[in-house]
Amino acid sequence: MEYIYSAMLLNAAGQKIDETSVKKVMTASGAKADESRIKALVAALDGVNIEEAIAKAAVAPQAAAAPGPAAEAAPKEEKKEKPKEKTDEEAASGLGALFG
Q1: Taking the model in full, what pTM does it have?
Q2: What is the pLDDT of residues 17-35, one digit of tens each?
């Protein structure tokens, strides 16, 4: 999570998000920087508009956090139909095909 936070911090400061910058933020915060994770993060964020991604992500949880009155109502019990039991004659009718 700290890798994402460092990228967000760099973005908020108007800095370029590259391996060197992310590593500097990580070490300045006292966290241990893993080179492979930093490379993966930078590669994943290449070409991504972070401000737009944050705006889209901020909308979804708010809509999910406010359930409507229908969601608060107790769930209705569904009527389960009992499976129809086959008579001996119906069960035996399929066996005739086996013996041709």
Answers
A1: 0.55
A2: 999 999 999 999 999 999 9
Q: Which residues contact 11 (CB under 8 A, 6 or more apart)?
A: 17, 50, 51
CB atoms within 10 A of CB 35: 9
Q: Are 3 and 38 in contact (CB under 8 A)?
A: yes
Q: What is the C-alpha to C-alpha distance for residues 25 and 20, in angstroms, rounded to an integer?
A: 9
Amino acid letter, 92: A
Q: How far is CA 56 from CA 34, 35, 51, 53, 93, in A?
A: 29, 29, 9, 5, 60
Note the CATH architecture for domain 2-66: Orthogonal Bundle (1.10)
